[in-house]
Write a structure and sequence with these properties.
7 strands; single chain; alpha/beta; four-stranded parallel β-sheet
């Protein structure tokens, strides 16, 4: 099958932007960045992967989980994979990364695959996740942090897409902690500095608003389910019931009960097949847990009153005319 050219151009960051990134990420797999159209910021190694992923062969029963980072992605992956596999915890006793591949991760961690603290099979998949995903049998649950425009062009026509969003302040806090603590990231700046990187889109994956609007504008498509992290926290069972209908895979009441228990934050945090850092000697690595708090409203512990006021104005500006402010402003 002929491949389609990737439709988005990239350009170098300015010298000033590159200096800022490399000062904040001095030893990092994500400090050599390029800017694509629409404000997407990616590691240079994404060049080449971009076209390969854009031309990835879809299957009609695929389920794609598409999110900006740190909005409940891992939680959603576990929920959906277990749902379509009848809450089979024995089958789920495999690292989530192998059950639900992160499609563009090779651009982020590919070069450091062998030195990463992950199991050997995961290290192998890190080197070419797209080929691995293509080889999977059965119904696939695939993950990407890319905006929908950068994924296969007929994705929403062919497959089920679950788009997950979270309010920008909690997203920023969680993304800050992740960039501080996760292997390969190495952020050394403070939170105030990170809020500016986030606000200007000068961090991995770039512009939060372009991303969330890429999902929001197709939220009423029959093959798209738009979920809020905050709603999942409020009523997990309700979301499971809705997803059973959306992906056309009913569960028994007993299976739903089992899945609710399986997805509790403390349970997932201790599960090495759901939490990628469970079982690691994090203190020796100088890192903290991938699954940190999973709370709504933790931003209040980080934002000053002045920063809160500044971001309220920014959020209002960015959501004007979209209908998003009604969801985000109260959070």
């Amino acid at each position: 099958m002929a491949t389609k050219p990737f439709p988005f151009k990239w350009e170098e960051l300015t010298a000033e932007e590159t200096a800022r990134v490399q000062a904040d990420f001095p030893e990092s797999a994500v400090n050599d960045l390029v800017r694509y159209e629409h404000g997407l910021i990616m590691p240079r190694d994404f060049i080449g992967i971009d076209e390969k992923l854009y031309n990835f062969t879809l299957r009609d029963d695929d389920i794609w989980i598409v999110t900006y980072p740190k909005v409940g992605t891992t939680w959603t992956q576990e929920m959906v994979w277990m749902l379509v596999n009848d809450v089979d915890e024995e089958a789920g006793a495999v690292p989530q990364f192998l059950r639900s591949p992160f499609m563009e991760v090779g651009a982020i961690l590919g070069k450091m695959a062998e030195s990463s603290p992950f199991p050997q099979m995961v290290k192998e998949v890190l080197k070419d996740t797209i080929t691995y995903a293509d080889s999977l049998k059965g119904r696939r649950v695939l993950k990407s942090h890319l905006p929908l425009e950068f994924l296969p062009p007929n994705l929403t026509q062919r497959c089920k897409v679950i788009y997950v969003a979270r309010n920008p302040k909690d997203t920023c806090v969680s993304w800050f902690k992740h960039n501080q603590s996760m292997p390969g990231h190495g952020y050394v700046g403070d939170f105030a500095g990170f809020t500016e990187l986030f606000k200007t889109g000068l961090s991995l994956y770039g512009d939060y608003w372009f991303h969330i609007l890429s999902g929001w504008k197709v939220r009423n498509h029959p093959n798209v389910k738009f979920l809020w992290f905050e709603d999942m926290k409020k009523d997990q069972r309700k979301i499971i019931d809705e997803l059973c209908v959306f992906v056309n895979h009913p569960l028994t009441p007993g299976q739903v009960d089992k899945l609710v228990e399986h997805l509790k934050f403390d349970t997932m945090k201790k599960n090495p097949n759901a939490n990628p850092t469970s079982g690691m000697d994090l203190e020796a690595l100088g890192k903290t847990d991938f699954m940190r708090k999973g709370q709504v409203g933790d931003w209040k512990n980080f934002f000053t009153p002045e920063k809160t006021e500044e971001w309220a104005a920014w959020i209002e500006e960015k959501t004007k005319g979209t209908g998003l402010i009604e969801k985000i402003a109260p959070l």
